Amino acid sequence: IEGVTNVVLDQRRAAELALRHLVQLGHRKIAFMRGGSHSSDADERWECQMTVARDLKLEVPPELTVQIQLRDSTPQLGFGLVNELVDRGADFTAVVCYNDESAFGAIRALVDHGLRVPEDVSVVGFDDIQGAAYHNPSLTTIRQPLRQMGVVAARILLQRIRGQATFPDAVPILPELVIRESTCPPGPRRARGKRN
Fold this sequence. Notes:
two-stranded parallel ribbon, 6-stranded mixed β-sheet
């Protein structure tokens, strides 16, 4: 909207943090979960991930990408998609999930297939919701500093009301990588387990 300042997360920096973390651990075969078209930041997040993947010389073959279709906000988002990846025999050592809820579902699907997280497959989420630190394993994720974003938005609003300054169309806020238990260096080649 013209004349409105948007306080937004720096999606490029978020992609750099997540992918560099996995690459530094030694991961090269990374599966990607793309957000649904109904999510406002899905396209920008995806484009930033693909740009950073190219910069890091990571291949992103179609067989290692899945897209969220569901509109709910539960672990089901990632559960079905990771089941699909494993069932079609995709070879990956890490998965970058669209958000933390989808990461929880991804972890459950991997475990159901007899794979260990992070020893067999590392998982990275996005948001750092409250449950991320208490999940088993605790989730490595990109933290959106929502409180900081709210403070910045309120400050800008008050300054605009008072006519104290002019502002750009967007004010980017830097994300943070929170490293927990769901990522580690890739292990030796493993035999894929089958679902019980």
